[in-house]
Design brief:
With 410 residues, the chain is an alpha/beta fold. It has four domains: 160 residues, Molybdenum Cofactor Biosythetic Enzyme, Chain A (3-Layer(aba) Sandwich); 45 residues, Alpha-Beta Complex (Molybdopterin biosynthesis moea protein, domain 2); 84 residues, Molybdopterin biosynthesis moea protein, domain 3 (Molybdopterin biosynthesis moeA protein, domain 3, Beta Complex); 73 residues, Beta-clip (Beta Barrel). The chain has a six-stranded mixed sheet, with no helix packed on it. The longest helix has 20 residues. The chain is elongated.
Length: 410
Amino acid sequence: MNEHAEMLSVEDALIRVTGGFSPIASEQVALSEGLGRVLAKDVAARLTQPPVAVSAMDGYAVRGADVATAPVTLERIGESQAGSGFSGTVAAGQCTRIFTGAPLPEGTDTIIIQEVTEVDGDAVTIKEAAPTGDFVRPAGLDFSEGEVLLRAGQTLTARDIGLAAAMNVPWVRVRRRPLVAFVATGDELVMPGDPLGPDQIVSSNSLGLAAMIRVLGGEPLDLGIARDTEDSLKDVLAGARGADCLVTIGGASVGDYDLVRRVMGEEGLELTFYKVAMRPGKPLIFGHWNAIPVLGLPGNPVSAGVTALIFLKAAMAIMLGTGDGSLETAPAVLGCDMPAGGRRRDFLRAQLDVGVDGRLTASPFDAQDSAMMARFAEARCLVIRPAGAEPMKAGDAVEIIRLDAGLRGF
């Protein structure tokens, strides 16, 4: 393959990545296990809520015609409680005691709150007139049987779980969590806490990527660290069989020890692209290996994080049916001047503030080295600077990718 082939734009790379994935199968889970899962099927109410007209207040159930003027004294003939309604019929000149959530007795259509009444035995004096229907929750006020209230593609929140329970739904059909296998490559890598040799570094990418996969709704499968030998890489990659996606970290560029493309190519890798015109993140692989979609991320920590944020997130959206995988951006203004851009599109780590006018203000950090994880963790957004951009001034409009919303936990 020609190492000097033209780099793909981010948009073209995203189109190819998202085109390489399909929605995965669904499964049925108990509603109690549905938090954070993505619905694969619309959910319709199995009942009407409330099923009958009920009282919104403690007071008295009356006929609206009897309380059009006040004061008026009515005869109390019974009581209606939630779960134990009044079984009789209320005639003209009569009323019943009623409590919040209790069904309105037959013949009544209005609630008089207890604060505007005086009671003497069974005689209830209404001191203030009320319009018909006052403080009544009609049948179906919340929702009706058969009404679709939760849609396929949405991620279930705690409020959604409560709503589904009220809809009398005990089970939901959700997308299976995509199984994302990943492997870090390099002789220099050791796991956090292990002894460090003079030329070794901590493998931070693996733990960060696993956490991101979980945030995105997937199930991470850590294959471990592959050393810089063909045998080691082959042995580790064998564990990816059956995964919905394989992510490699490092070993994707053109150095003598970058083995991923060569080894996987010998075992059937169909490469779609291997360079993207972005910074950080130029050496990015995408293809299929034994029918498994493969994303090959750069080894530098920030490069791996940014490319995962853009491309792995897009792949997960397709697999889970939550979107089309397109880049999600927001408008902002610069909080500082910026020099001209280079040949690749920049994704600059930045602070994010809300100005007095309510607009988002993004201020890129001075240092943008792709090995600086502390700045990546500190960043609240990525400022997108087009390839070949002219110098910009504070206050100029920019597009950003937010890191403090929509991807909580990343």
